[in-house]
C-alpha cells in the first residue's frame, strides 16, 4: 500500500468515525503505512468495510484489527479441532504398520500438532490407549499450532523470512526434516516394490540403511 493510499484509508475511517482525530496526522499516516505497507489497498478497503458493517460499538479500527480481517478474507479456513482430530483418529486405526503412510496423508498443521509418525504408531499399539486423553492432548497442541500459524501469516513477508531463518536449525525443524526424509524413503520403497517385483527386497541397500537410521533416530526422540 502506498502512503497516499494509507492517507485515503484514514480519511475513510475518519469519515465513518468523526470522533477519530489523531493528534498528529503525519505520524499517524506514517505509522499506519508501516503496518499496512505489504497489504494491497483494495484488500484493506474491503477489510474496513467488513469491520464497519459489523461494528456495533462505534470505535475506529486499529491496524491490527484490519490486518486480522484481511487475513480472514484472504486465507482458506483451517480445520477446527474436532475436524482435525477425526483425521488423526482415522489414521491411528491403520498406524501399527503404516504410520509413515498415514502421517503423510495428514495436513501439515495436523502433522506439526502430532510431532512424528512414531506418535501415531505408539497410540495404535498402546494397550492402555485412552482416546479421551489423546484427543485432549492433540487438540491443545493443534490449537496452539493453529494460533501460532495464524499470527505468523499476519506478519510481513520479510519478517516471516527472518523467523524462518532463525528457526531453520531448531529442534522442531530437525524433526520435520526427519519426517520428510522418512516419508520420502517410504515412497521410494513403495515404487521399488512395484517396479522391481523380481527382486526379493524391493528396495536398494542404500535406502534400506537410511530407513534403519531414521527409525533409530525416531526412537531417540
Give an overview in words:
This protein is mostly helical and 221 residues long. It contains twelve helices and no strands. It has helices at residues 3-16, 25-36, 41-54, 63-74, 81-92, 99-105, 108-114, 117-125, 131-154, 157-167, 171-195, 205-220. Helix 1 (3-16) crosses helix 2. The longest helix has 25 residues, at 171-195.
List the helices and strands and how they pair.
Elements: H1 3-16, H2 25-36, H3 41-54, H4 63-74, H5 81-92, H6 99-105, H7 108-114, H8 117-125, H9 131-154, H10 157-167, H11 171-195, H12 205-220
* DSSP helical segment count: 12
Q: Can you tell me the residue ranges where pLDDT is under 50 for at least 5 consecutive residues? A: 193-203
Helix/strand structural class: mainly alpha
Largest sheet data: none
At a glance:
By secondary structure, the protein is an all-alpha fold. Helix content is 74%, strand content 0%.
Kindly list the characteristics that best describe this protein.
mainly alpha, 74% helix, 221 residues, single chain
